[in-house]
Amino acid sequence: QFECATPSKFLVDAGALDISGPAPLAQHRTCVSGRECTFGSLIGFQMPSNYVLKVLDTCGTNADVPRLAGFGIGSVFTNTSDNTTDLFVSWGSMASTAAGGQYRLCWCAGATADGENMSPCSTSEAFATDAGALLLVGPAPLQQARTCVSGQTCAFGDLLGF
User: Fold this and answer.
1) 8 A C-beta contact, residue 123 and residue 56
2) Interior CA angle at 98 toward 92 and 99, to 5°?
3) If DSSP states are collapsed to H, E and C, what string results for the chain?
4) Residue 82 — very low, low, confident or very high, per pLDDT cuts 50/70/90?
5) Closest to 77 in 3D by CA, of 69, 91, 87
6) What percent of the chain has a predicted confidence (pLDDT) above 70?
7) Are 57 and 103 in contact, with CB atoms under 8 Å apart?
8) How far apart are CA 51 and CA 85, in angstroms?
9) Which residues pair with 136 in a beta bridge?
10) 80, 69 Cβ separation under 8 angstroms
């Protein structure tokens, strides 16, 4: 009878397991609300050419961030060497006008490393891997009302933001 209940019982190396995706998982970036958002140097291992990144409040949930360009889905361009992929992410020329805050950069594997279709990445729930944080600098909340009197100097402060 064979017993495989403890790590010490696994004595034979059966092979290797490569896990493709963003690595390390704490790759934080910053963008400014009201401007184009593009950044580079996200790194990963054996990233497929149809890599997809989406900004969400929480990865793997239907927590879309309102007013993000491209519905939060960034276009990813890759530069691959030695099984390491350097990623450049862009939301195009459209400015994001979402509230300032800290959001998550969520990854969805559009295909396996050999190119077979694995997931269409058509729902926010498919973006389950948290690759890091996106700090969006800007006003929060977006609706901050102030009152001024016509014909008089108007000054106010205390606008809230992130």
Assistant:
1) no
2) 150
3) CCCCCCHHHCCCCCCCCCCCEECCCCCCEEEECCCCCEEEEEEEECCCCCCEEEEECCCCCCCECCCCHHHHEEEEEEEEECCEEEEEEECCCCCCCCCCEEEEEEEECCECCCCCECCCCCCHHHCCEEEEEEEEECECCCCCCCCCCCCCCCCCCCCCEC
4) low
5) 87
6) 81
7) yes
8) 11
9) 31, 101
10) no
Report the distance separating Cα 2 and Cα 43, nearest Å: 42
How many residues are there in the chain? 162
Chain centroid to CA 157: how far?
32
Diameter of the chain measured on Cα atoms: 92
- Residues ≥6 apart with Cβ < 8 Å to 123: 62
Distance between CA atoms of 34 and 19, rounded to whole angstroms? 36
- Predicted structure pTM score: 0.77
Q: Residue 110 CB: number of other CB atoms within 10 A?
A: 19
Amino acid identity of residue 140, one-letter, is A
Determine contact, residues 43/85, Cβ cutoff 8 Å: yes
pLDDT at 83 over 60: no
